[in-house]
Design goal:
Length: 158
C-alpha cells in the first residue's frame, strides 16, 4: 500500500493548519488530506489513525481514529476529521486522547519535537465493533486481528 497527502510529505514538518487549537497552540486543527492506493484486492474496509509515540504518557497519544471506511474509499479530504468536509456514510470517528472523537492536531509540550504517524489500514472485515467512545487502544486492538496491509506518513512538529 501507499499513503500520500496533498498537505505534506513523509518527514516534513506539520503545517500550522493541522496543529491543535488549545493547550497553548493556535493552529486550525484541520485534519489533512490523505489518499491511498495499491490496496489488497480482498480489502473490505479501512481504518485511518494518527498517533504520537513521543507523548510523555508512557503510552503515546491518539490524535485521530476513523473506522469502517468503505472498501471503495481511496481518500479523505482535508477537514474530513474536523467537520468541515464529509466522511463516507457508516464510518465512525473514535475518541482521541483529547477526550472526544474527531481529529485533534499536534500539541507537544513546549520545546519538544514529536512525530505524528498517519496510518491507513486495509482490513478483511466490513465493520469493526467500535463507536465514538472507543479509545485508540481499543481501535488498534481490533485492527490487529483484521489487518491485511498498511501504509504510513510521519510528520514532525515542535
Amino acid at each position: 500500500m501507499k499513503l500520500y497527502s496533498h498537505d505534506f510529505n513523509d518527514g516534513d514538518r506539520m503545517p500550522e493548519r493541522h496543529v491543535f487549537n488549545g493547550m497553548g497552540y493556535q493552529g486550525d486543527n484541520l485534519s489533512p488530506h490523505l489518499a491511498w492506493d495499491e490496496v489488497p484486492a480482498d480489502t473490505k474496509s479501512f481504518v485511518v489513525t494518527c498517533f504520537d509515540p513521543d507523548a510523555p504518557t508512557g503510552s503515546g497519544w491518539w490524535h485521530w481514529g476513523v473506522a469502517n471506511l468503505p472498501a471503495d474509499t481511496r481518500a479523505l479530504p482535508q477537514g474530513a476529521g474536523s467537520g468541515s468536509a464529509g466522511l463516507p456514510d457508516g464510518c465512525v470517528q473514535t475518541r482521541t486522547d483529547f477526550g472526544r472523537s474527531g481529529y485533534g492536531g499536534a500539541a507537544p509540550p513546549k520545546d519538544e519535537s514529536h512525530r505524528y504517524i498517519f496510518t491507513v489500514y486495509a482490513l478483511d472485515i466490513d465493520c469493526l465493533d467500535v463507536d465514538a467512545q472507543s479509545s485508540g487502544a481499543l481501535l488498534g486492538f481490533n485492527v490487529h486481528f483484521h489487518k491485511l496491509d498498511s501504509a504510513t506518513i510521519t510528520v514532525n512538529y515542535n
